[in-house]
Amino acid sequence: MTYRQRLSILLLAAAFGAAAESPYGIEVVECVTAAKDLRFNNPNNVLGEPKRFVNIYSGSWGGVGYSDTYGGVVHPAVPAYSGGIHLTLASPDDEEPGYVIIAFDHDVVDDPDNPFGVDFIVFGNAGCTKSTTTGMTALDDPATCRLTAAGFSEESVVEVAQNPNGPWYGSDQWRTSDGFAPTLGHVYDPANADTNLYSGNLWWGAPTDPTYPVDPRIDFSDCAGLTLAELCQRYNGSAGGAGYDLADVSGLPVNAQGRKWFRYVRISCAYSEEPNDEGDYGFTEPEVDAVADVAPVSGYRNWVLNNFTWAEAWQTNLTAATVIAPNGLANGLNCLYGLKPTDAVAANVPFAITAFEHGETAHVIKMRSPTRLTATPKGLVVKEAAALGGEWTVVRPTFVSAQQNGAVWLNTFTVPRDTTSRFFKLALDAD
User: Fold this and answer.
1) Are residues 247 and 340 in the same domain?
2) Which residue segment(s) compose the domain that 113 sits in?
3) What's residue 3's pLDDT?
């Protein structure tokens, strides 16, 4: 059954102003699919956040009676597979691929503060392969489920555009949207399991964040030997999905700030060069669940992600700003000084502002460090306030120069003058 459908979403204004931007796709501009199962060919399935829960289902699947008793959280060993959860893309013929075009209500930009450099995420319904063929129920302990180096996925083609009719841009470096990392609906947190999710839940706590990506350097092979519980912990609060960096795209125009951007994403069936189970060649049939704009994170969190492995970055006892790193400095100081945890330092220099000079258009700030800086560390911010009891405004300083003074370096920064601010502090952006 082939159809083309154009849908529009009416954006309602809030009672006292326009509605806030959504981090998820809000409109299906066009959809072409030949999926025969009516539960999986509804384009609306791709709108909003990725699905977090698989409901118990009983009914007909492809004309055959089918029942499912899982009724639990979506996670890498039980992906979003039941009816009404996702859209299946199936090509109508051997000439053209099936596809869906999804619109955001704002420009998605190449943001340097995004974790891992990832700018947007596409969610499918891929999954990890367990070491046993035994089915998993919602009451089974994820710590007893062992994973292999394999997973099940479908190849797809992901492209972006600034207008709904293109031109479309992509990258050979981009992975399939229906692959790693499989969706995780809730955090694995036995100590704070949410008993309202379903009866007997002992493992799953708060909802995960669909705007925070899993390390894009990781794949199914990195899951070998891990338990499901360990894998979910290493997601570090992320809902998973396949992450994409706009820096990988050539030719995509930039905005006034010099950043690449898009508003429309197209996910298409890929042509498979390998035969399927029936020995036939042709287009793949990937699933699409949701698309999300990645939210930027603090300078310190980015420092942690860049300096700790995937197996370490979720562990608070290793990554907290107060933890002493192998070089003898606290993680927070290493971030402020632009150092790696293992960088040797000649002196243990206390974090200190040596001068704050008011200016007509900008204020000058000088800070000591054990090594020379060449740019403003991402974790370094200035907090300004009009009064001590007032709200602090965060501003990132601009690096000017570094001069050696004995065993330490004196670094100079500037911040634009704000005539309302009277109090200032140089701080670690760790929120």
Assistant:
1) no
2) 3-297
3) 29
